[in-house]
Amino acid sequence: MNFYPFSFLSQGTIIRRLSLFWCLFISYSSYSTTCTSTGTGDWDDNGTWSCGHVPGCGDTIIIASGNTVSINHGQEDYTPCTPANLVRVFGTLRFTNGYKLRLNCSSTIVVMSGGLITSTANGNGNNNLIEICSNIVWSSSCGDLVGPLSLPAYDCVLPITLVSFTAEKSKSNVLLKWTTASEINNDYFMPERSKDGKAFEEVGRVQGAGNSTTMLSYSLTDASPFDGVSYYRLKQVDFDGTSSYSDIVAVNMENKDFEALNITPDIMNGIISITLRSNYNGKAEYSLSDVLGNNIHQGTVESSKGLNQIDIRAYHLAQGVYYFTIRNDHEILTKKIFY
Questions:
Q1: Where are the domains of the chain?
Q2: What is the pTM of this model?
Q3: Looking at residue 226, what DSSP letter applies?
C-alpha cells in the first residue's frame, strides 16, 4: 500500500481541497436544523415537530408521509430570515381560511410524490397563499398541488382571471370592455390594436387593482380604429414588468348595423314594407317623417342578424316623399321613400 504524506501535496491541491470542504460545509449548514413532523398537528405547535420547537430561520422542514400539518394561526412569515428554508412535503400541508406561508428569496418547497398542498378555504380564493421572495406562487384558487413538483419552479398563479374581453363598434369608435374575477400584483392594462393581427400598437392604459378577489369591470374607447377590420388584444402588466395577453378579437368598421335592401310602398293596401339586412342583435327605434321633418309614425323593433322586415301602416298618408329612419346606439340609417 502506498502512503503519501501530507507534505507531498502541492499548495494548489491543498487550497482546492480546503475550498471544496468549505463549500460542502456551507451547503450542509445552510439549513441549521431538521424539523420533521411527528404526527398530525398545527404548524405553530412545538409538539408537532421532532426538533421540539416551531421551525425557524434556515431550518429544513419535513412533513412526513401520513401526517397533516395545518397553518391556521394567521401567517408563518420567514421573509426576514437570512438562511433559506427548505420545506419537503411527503404528507399534507393544509391551509385554513385566510392564512399564509411566506418564505425568503432563496427558499424552496418540494412536494414529493404522494405529497399534497391543500386548502379548506370556503370560497376565499387567494386569501390562502404561499409567497416566495414576495411573489405569490400558490393560492387556494389554484386548487390542490399534488407532487412531485417544487416551488417556485412551479407557479400556478395567473396574474389575472379574465372573465371577458370584448370590442364593440360605437359610431366611429370602438368600445373595449373587460372584466376580471381576480387580480394578483396587477399594475395596469394596455389594450392594443392591429391592422393585420400581427403587429400591435398601444391604444391606451388603464390602472389595475393590484390585488383583488372581486369582479371588476374596465373600459376604454379607441377613437382611431383602422378603416375596415381592427384587431384588438388586452395586454396585462405586473408590477415587475412581466406581461400576459388575452385572445384577439376583431371589429369590422365597414360592416353597417343596418342596410336597406328593399322598400315597397303598397298604396292599394296602405302599407310600406321595408326589408333590412342587419348585423345587430337588439332593440332599434324606427320612424317615418315628411319632407318638413314632422314625425308621422314611430316604433321599436327587436333586430336580429340577417333579414328583418318592418311594415308601416300608411293608408292615411297623402302621396309624396317621406323618410324612413332606423337607429340604435351605434348607427343611424335614413332612406327616402316615394309613396
A1: 11-151, 160-252, 258-338
A2: 0.44
A3: P
